[in-house]
UniProtKB/TrEMBL annotation:
PANTHER family: AIG2-LIKE PROTEIN D, GAMMA-GLUTAMYLCYCLOTRANSFERASE-RELATED. This is Putative gamma-glutamylcyclotransferase. Residues 1-37 are annotated as: Disordered. Residues 27-37 have a biased composition (Polar residues). Residues 47-150 form the Gamma-glutamylcyclotransferase AIG2-like domain. Residues 12-22 have a biased composition (Pro residues). Keywords: Transferase. One of its GO terms (molecular function) is transferase activity. The keyword Transferase applies.
């Protein structure tokens, strides 16, 4: 028996609504590990810094800027800080957790590459919602952050992180 339902061509279907925003807001929360990754962000875009990059002098040096850049006091929610040797590492946390730091408006893909090179393969770029704490506008913005790429539980327990080690050694060991 044949189906008598009329077929609608794809082009005549009504437009679909855009996907929901996947960033935590002041009134809702999506865990950071479920945030979408944009392969090609549009510049300029804010990057949130929580460790050595909160120093304008360090950012100037890494990006080879003529002067220290303006950094904005900021925070992100849903993340926590753990220690990776002497360095702070951002890991996924509980929705109530807040990490304070600074934000910088990255102006180009070249600047983003320089920052990623500085952070090494120990960190991955993730989407985040940045809340500014300096009283200036905008008071929040979609942005990027460097998140620890290894096994966060191993980091918290202070044990060797085989996952990160394999990622860092990658092609050199044929992994």
């Amino acid at each position: 028996m044949q189906d008598k339902t009329p077929q609608t061509p794809e082009s005549s279907k009504p437009p679909q609504p855009p996907p929901p925003k996947l960033f935590p807001t002041k009134h809702s929360f999506t865990p950071p590990d479920t945030l979408s990754q944009q392969d090609n962000p549009i510049y300029p875009i804010y990057y949130f810094f929580y460790g050595t990059l909160t120093s304008p002098t360090q950012v100037k040096r890494i990006l080879d800027l003529p002067e220290e850049p303006p950094l904005r006091k900021a925070e992100v929610t849903g993340y926590a800080i753990a220690k990776w040797g002497d360095y702070p590492a951002l890991i996924n946390g509980n929705q109530e957790q807040v990490v304070t730091g600074s934000a910088y408006l990255v102006k180009s893909e070249e600047e983003a590459r320089k920052l990623a090179h500085y952070e090494t393969s120990a960190y991955e770029v993730a989407d985040c919602l940045i809340f500014f704490k300096d009283g200036e506008e905008p008071d929040e913005a979609d942005g990027k952050v460097f998140v620890y790429a290894g096994d966060a539980q191993a980091l918290l327990e202070g044990r060797f992180d085989r996952k990160l080690w394999g990622k860092q050694m990658g092609g050199r060991l044929g992994l």
